[in-house]
Amino acid sequence: MTPTDGTEVQVLADLMKLALHIITAAAFGIPFKWTSSAPWPNHQLSFYQSLVTLLDRLFSILSIPNFIFQLPIHSIRKSKNAYGKFGQYLTDIITREGKVI
């Protein structure tokens, strides 16, 4: 989509980011910056990067048997990595909330 001044607008990417912003803020209490977010301490990917990669590869994560994830195929390893990293974030969120209560 192009506005009247000729610049390109990434509507789908912006809508996905907006939806993720709302979901993560409502479900996990984690706001993230619109432009970028840094990884939390002891994390390699940011929360946003891990969530987007997980959602992008969700079908392969759910449909591929676990032993396949051990193969040296970059895309399969990236799927497993995103799944693991997002799991670490969820564990950290639960731990953090447990300390608050």
Report on this model:
The structure is a single chain. This protein is mainly alpha-helical. The protein has a domain at 34-100. 60% of the residues lie in helices and 0% in strands. 9% of the residues are buried. The mean pLDDT is 82.
Write the layout of secondary structure elements.
Elements: H1 11-28, H2 47-56, H3 58-63, H4 74-100
Tag the structure with descriptive keywords.
101 residues; oxidoreductase activity, acting on paired donors, with incorporation or reduction of molecular oxygen; heme binding; mainly alpha; 60% helix; iron ion binding; globular
Provide a quick synopsis of the model:
This protein is mainly α. It has a domain at 34-100. It is built from four helices and no strands.
Order of helices and strands: HHHH
Tally the helices.
4
Mean pLDDT, nearest integer? 82
β-strand number: 0
Output the radius of gyration.
Answer: 16 Å
Low-confidence stretches: none
Separation, N- and C-terminal Cα atoms? 46 Å
Share in helix:
55-70%
User: Strand-residue fraction?
Assistant: under 5%
> Quaternary state, please?
single chain
What characteristic shape results from the CA principal axes?
globular
The main β sheet shows up as:
none
Structural class: mainly alpha
